[in-house]
Design brief:
Elements lengths: L2 H20 L8 H12 L17 H6 L1 H9 L23 H12 L27 E4 L4 E3 L6 E8 L6 E9 L6 E9 L3 H5 L8 E2 L10 H5 L4 E3 L14 E3 L4 E8 L6 E3 L2 E7 L7 E5 L10 E2 L6 E8 L4 E10 L3 E9 L5 E7 L9 E10 L4 E8 L16 E2 L9 E9 L5 H13 L16 E3 L13 E5 L9 E2 L15 E5 L2 E2 L2 E4 L3 E5 L9 E8 L2 E2 L3 E4 L6 E2 L8 E2 L2 E2 L18 E7 L4 E2 L14 E2 L3 E5 L2 E10 L8 E6 L7 E9 L2 E2 L4 E5 L1
Parallel strand pairs: 33-43
Antiparallel strand pairs: 1-11, 2-10, 3-6, 3-9, 4-8, 4-11, 5-7, 5-9, 12-21, 13-20, 14-19, 15-18, 15-21, 16-17, 16-19, 22-23, 23-28, 24-27, 25-26, 25-29, 27-28, 29-30, 29-31, 32-35, 34-35, 35-40, 36-37, 38-39, 38-41, 39-40, 41-42, 41-43
Helix pairs in contact: 1-4, 1-5, 2-5, 4-5
């Protein structure tokens, strides 16, 4: 746990305690009935003796002793650790708590943490011999401990452990138990049947042999490049591969473990124990694809000091039909965001993994709830953003300094890693060969080309990244997007907003978008209505005669979002009161029963069909999908829903009558278009 978070928890504990003393509920929430199932299903796997968590949560007394902290860390979504964004891809064994579960924990803390009837409490999970997955089929241990000094540079060490196998085996899971977790950065697993690694073992008088790249020059380097046997990083939860998927471990082979050590000021001795779980031979072998390749070594990663949003991308096109098994990401302390998208030949865009708030200590591997079919020709785009500013509280350099690709924790690297099985066994070599060529191919320098990643395009109202809709106002963040000086919109001779401003164009599948303003690091545009009916779109920014790489984004029919008064996408909504003059606020609240005008974007296609850049006048377009609204949770009568008169197509206005029975004060307000609803957290002031 980072030191800063520890102090946050201490400071907030008093607040949680105060809430616990003041909150009430209508039905008693007890540990036995409500809380035990949540803890045992989501927390105990790590919180039991011998595991990574600092204390066990295996009984009522365990949980009550840490109840205040549990209430806090679950309310801020720090625990259980689960980094992927919801709503895009389903993963197996998700530890994300639902809002209802978080509410139950809050109510339980507020009630003084009652136990309830112990007879109704579910039995705590049993962990055989301390193994999360049960007793392994084969337990291996480093033959000797490796001494990690208190200080000095990071260490990459390759350890050779004979398996003693007399028959070929197929690995379905690996569980790792480091003895000195605080200095283990990560471990990668491989096998060797050549004896090459064994010949290097102990040559320098210490267990194993040194070097990050040396693992790829002994044994079978091609198998290593294609993913080996997997790996372990801080926060990994061991899990079985899906049925029918396994990794070969040949008879007579040595188990190779490359461990990256990061000295932390205290000398330690590491003697890792490894549990291997076997299953039947699969019909098709699994392999791995990385974008950018080989942890970003060829992505020209060079992060200037002070830059908060440095970006790298990598793309790989599948040469055959595959089923995706699972996904994970890797970066160091400067990592801020990681995203992997798949653009299918049909144009559909699927987000396979999206971590908005990267954390070095929680690098899990995410197995899909079911295999994800990806046809031949699918383009995989891996995108990472780094924060090398002083605002990054885990930046290892103070003040920040230039950081390049490197093996040490204070260097950087980055990749999105996708495990796949070919749908036809005969295609395995084609996939592996294409992956190897991709690893060896140099990445062209970005130079002065425009650069942005898909998460760098956000909703102009909610400020959130995600899918786009026809006519949505969006803001793009990146590098070299437009002129150095901010340049505002221009009108064409027919009175529309221009699609080329200051030498900048934004193209959606080649269709130029109306530009609201542009600059080197930021621009705003309106998504063309031509994306209507599509499952995805390819976006490029053109600055002069240079174009960015294409970035894939999902397309939804509608995704309304309300503009906020403070432009943050939350809080007081941008609303005009019935007089048509005053802006709604706490000092100028709207009367119950009055009609107010709410401003939004993302209503989707209109009737008549939207015209890019047109200013709404005369016959104003209205959304094709039905529009409704709620104020303080109550249905509000919609008087008008359509283009905002005098404004560019894409600015959406909804006039609603405030129900007479709503509460006074700042109350929630929502707009619904079809089945889509505007972002939570928006309010209107009512008197």
């Amino acid at each position: 746990m980072h030191r800063y978070l520890y102090f946050i928890l201490l400071a907030a504990a008093a607040q949680v305690q105060t809430q616990a003393q003041t909150q009430t509920q209508t039905q008693p929430v007890t540990f036995a009935k409500d809380i035990a199932p949540i803890i045992y299903n989501n927390c105990s796997k790590c919180h039991h003796t011998g595991e990574v968590a600092p204390f066990p949560l295996m009984s009522y007394s365990d949980v009550k002793a840490h109840g205040i902290t549990i209430g806090l860390v679950t309310s801020i979504h720090y625990m259980p650790p689960w980094k992927p964004e919801p709503g895009w891809t389903a993963y197996r064994d998700e530890r994300r708590l639902t809002p209802a579960q978080i509410s139950l924990i809050q109510q339980w803390v507020a009630a003084g943490m009652p136990q309830g009837d112990p007879a109704t409490e579910p039995k705590a999970p049993q962990y055989t011999d301390g193994w999360q997955l049960g007793t392994p089929d084969l337990i291996l241990k480093m033959p000797a401990g490796f001494n990690v000094p208190a200080d000095g540079p990071d260490i990459y060490r390759n350890f050779v452990i004979p398996t003693g196998l007399t028959a070929d085996k197929w690995v379905t899971a690996i569980e790792l138990k480091p003895s000195a977790r605080s200095v283990v950065h990560h471990s990668l697993f491989f096998s060797d049947t050549t004896g090459g690694a064994r010949a290097q073992d102990g040559v320098d008088g210490q267990p194993g042999f040194p070097g990050f790249g040396s693992i790829f020059t002994v044994g079978d380097p091609l198998a290593a490049i294609n993913g080996g046997l997997g790996g372990w990083v801080p926060g990994t939860t061991p899990a079985f591969l899906p049925s029918g998927v396994a990794i070969p471990l040949p008879k007579g082979s040595d188990f190779l473990m490359q461990t990256h050590f990061h000295p932390n000021g205290v000398a330690a001795t590491e003697q890792t124990v490894i549990g291997l779980y076997f299953g039947p031979a699969p019909a098709v072998q699994m392999t791995q694809i990385q974008v950018p390749a080989f942890f970003g070594i060829r992505a020209n990663l060079d992060i200037p000091a002070g830059v908060p949003d440095y970006k790298i991308r990598g793309s790989f096109t599948l040469p055959a039909d595959v089923n995706a098994v699972g996904v994970w990401a890797h970066a160091h302390y400067l990592g801020h965001e990681a995203k992997l998208t798949a653009t299918l030949p049909s144009g559909e865009v699927r987000i396979l993994l999206w971590i908005k708030d990267w954390e070095f200590n929680w690098q899990d591997q995410y197995i899909f709830n079911s295999l994800v079919p990806l046809p031949k020709g699918t383009r995989l785009d891996g995108e990472l953003t780094y924060d090398n500013s002083s605002g990054n509280i885990v930046n290892p350099n103070s003040p920040p300094k230039n950081v390049k690709w490197g093996e040490n924790s204070t260097d950087e690297m980055g990749s999105l890693l996708l495990n796949v099985v070919p749908q036809k066994a005969a295609d395995l070599n084609a996939i592996q060969n294409a992956s190897i060529i991709y690893v060896l191919s140099p990445v062209p320098l970005v130079g002065t080309k425009p650069l942005f990643v898909s998460s760098g395009m956000v909703d102009g109202a909610s400020t959130q990244a995600g899918a786009v809709t026809p006519g949505k106002i969006v803001v793009l963040y990146g590098n070299n997007l437009g002129p150095a000086k901010l340049t505002g919109a221009a009108l064409t001779s027919d009175g529309r907003y221009a699609t080329s401003v200051g030498g900048t164009q934004v193209l959606f599948d080649g269709v130029p978008a109306p530009i609201l303003y542009t600059s080197s690091g930021q621009l705003a545009a309106v998504v063309p209505y031509a994306v209507d009916g599509k499952l995805g779109t390819q976006v490029q920014v053109r600055n002069g005669n240079q174009s960015s790489d294409p970035v894939a984004l999902p397309v939804w029919p509608a995704q309304p979002s309300l503009f906020s008064a403070n432009l943050t996408g939350a809080g007081q909504a941008a609303i005009i009161n019935q007089d048509g003059l005053t802006v709604n606020s706490s000092s100028a609240p709207a009367a119950k029963g009055s009609i107010v005008s709410i401003y939004a974007t993302g209503e989707g296609q209109t009737t008549p069909g939207g015209i890019d850049g047109q200013i709404a006048k005369g016959t104003v377009p209205v959304p094709k999908l039905p529009v409704s609204a709620t104020v303080d949770g109550q249905a509000a009568d919609v008087q008008y829903a359509g283009g905002a008169p005098g404004a560019i197509a894409g600015l959406f206005q909804v006039n609603v009558r405030i129900p007479a029975t709503v509460s006074s004060g700042n109350v929630p307000v929502e707009i619904h278009v079809g089945n889509a609803v505007s972002q939570a957290g928006m309010t209107i002031s009512v008197k």
